[in-house]
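I'd like us to work through together how a protein chain folds, taking it slowly. We need material for that, and I hope you will provide a protein of your own picking. Go ahead whenever you are ready, and we will take it from there:
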Amino acid sequence: MKISKLSQVYASILIDAVYQMKNYPITLVSNVIAPFSVLILIILVSHGGLLSISIEGALITSMISGGVTLQIDLSHIKNDFKLQDMLVSSPTTAFTYTLGMAMAALTNALPALAVLTVLSLLFIHASPIGALTVFAVFVLVFAFSVSLGFMLSTFSTDIQQNRALVSILTVILATIAPIYYPITYIPLPLRYVAYLSPATYAAEIAQNAIGDLSLSASNLAIDWIVLVAVCCVLFTAAIKKSHWRDP
């Protein structure tokens, strides 16, 4: 990667993450509330029985939230500041812009991720292979969330529209999916609804990796295929179909 592209990515982190956290500390609280509120609730209800799964679920929620809510910032930059018009006319590519904003979203999520990582080391006793598997799942979840957030932001015309989309996507990706508990807790007829969310497949892989859910080799393979396919489709759509440059 050229130095100029690195500078563009670094500028995105400064503007959309460091500046916000420095001047508006309340954003730190906002980034932490969502995963930790559900984490605490599940731990209390299960009397600690779902501790490890809940921590892993909170990490997945942080990845999803960081990617999906990115569309609000992108829409604000595009529609209110008109900054995207300048970027479109510059050598900056959609990929570089998306990468920079993705790194900014990840920077915003770092406080929550740091605490959750420490909790993972203390309470989740996964094997090295299991830990690498969970990390791979987090990367894929963040990638498809960012791709989805970027694509939707390029079609939006108002930031309020994006807020509504974020609420809907959060329900689909992080509420319907059993990421804070095993899917076996859901009655069988309703499990088909949970499988509408790609986060369900990510949660199953992660829960299997830490030893809290037993999956057959075929089911595990299907989960990987679906998760990777969703990530590839959304990433391709974000780059090829988004309204980045008008024809």
